[in-house]
Specification:
Family: Belongs to the N(4)/N(6)-methyltransferase family.
Number of domains: 2
Oligomer: single chain
Enzyme class: transferase
Domain Type II methyltransferase M.TaqI-like: 53-191
Protein name: site-specific DNA-methyltransferase (adenine-specific)
Helix content: 25-40%
Number of strands: 23
GO biological process, one term: methylation
Length: 524
Amino acid sequence: MTNKKNTGSYYTPSYLASFVSKRVLSHFGNRTRMSILEPSVGDGAFVSELEKEENININLTALDINDIELIIASEKWGKKTGSFVKTDFLEYSTTKLYSAVIGNPPYVKKNILTSKQIELSKEIHSNENLTEASVKNIWTTFLVKANTLLAKNGVLAFVLPSELLQVKFAEEVREYLKKEFERIEIFTFNDLMFECKGQDTIVLFAYKKADQKGEYFTNITSKESLEQNNFILNHNNILVESNVKWTHHFLTSEELTFIDNLKLQLKTVNDYSFSRPGIVTAANKFFIIDKETEEKYDLSKYTKPIIQKGLFVNGSVVFSNKDIQKLEEKNRPTRLLQLNDSDNIPAKLREYLSFGVAEEIPGRYKCKIRNNWYVIPNISVKPEAFFFKRSHLYPKLLKNNSNAFVTDSAYKVEMKNGYDLNSFIYSFYNTLTLLLSELDGRYYGGGVLELTPSEFKKLPVPYTRINNIEFDNFTQSFENKNNIEDILIMNDFRILNSTLGLTDIDIKRLSEIRYKLKKKRLRK
């Protein structure tokens, strides 16, 4: 899929445009005339598909902010009833209501929008009684505005990022859709439907009027499934009525109820510990250096050891100074440049700082608001433990036995009075907590799992106290494991039976649910 970062354009494959177009048109049965709006026409994939329709007289209105793309799209429309307008959809004004609004809106984060676009977005959301918190990406505003331009029996069909189903700011948008449409259909996919790294997509169909009302979900395993209409849409009441992310629609009501009942019996990470983000450098590649650079510019008196990302700590639950040394031997960047406002700047250090100036790092927002752009605030003390907010095969919580700090790729963890760090880390590695990480977190293209600070703090943990010898044995077993399943098999019964009274059958059930969640995220 072609991606133009400045405009947030992700162009739609023809087979997907064909499926969406045909499904929308089929909803209108024997109607011979209808009006369709495409608010961001792009390369004209939907125009091409709608143009093939012979039985319905389509009055098409196509908009785009890019006049060249608009011309290319217009050349694909051979019918008489159509208008192609160069405009930003946020500024588009009309009294006309459309039978359908169809397309693939741009995906542009708020911080890249112009001030005018931000104000227009706020106004559009406010007019629909939505808060400013829902204005995080331009696709949400396209969705909201598209709804206001639909006729009373209209259909909205958009290709959207999977953020709609799982991120916090989209909760309000989901509730808005439930209120505005009698029927919602969500299509998720096993594979990325576009040739674009990291952008997981869904298709939304929303019907103003419907005989069969409610929210319906299906997961598409292949392109052929769409082309042959080989799928089943399932209704999932418990999912929609709860706080569970809609990405997990493939779980049954019984599974969701089972999990929810267990969650209610447990304390959370926030009950046992304090957690806060790691160090924000604003430019890791500049402020975190390797030993060779440290020696070249004589910076050792200005550096501290640091872990840059979770990729560097695979395979253990304890991080030591020996692990730092191993990373240094691999020439990994492990040294944090820590300067003070009062430091005199010698020639070698000044030479290194000049590279940052050449890369325009002082102009970055977080550097610009510092007294001196090169002085990183809030470094404080090294953490007792850290949890990496992003993971792949399983979430990582490690005890810090080194002198190392950690970047904001992780949350610093400090235990509250009455709770033991070794026991907390041991207790974390059980099937239920890892399952809930999958359920409460969100995932992205490529199978990356992420837990935001609030999601991590709310994560339930069946705390089980162990002694130091048991923790040492656990640490050794963790380092010698073939995979995380080895640890779960070893830990599950002791942790989950003692805290929740779960039987082997219950634990097997949790393992099967976790496998389904993990399989979907990793697209296996």
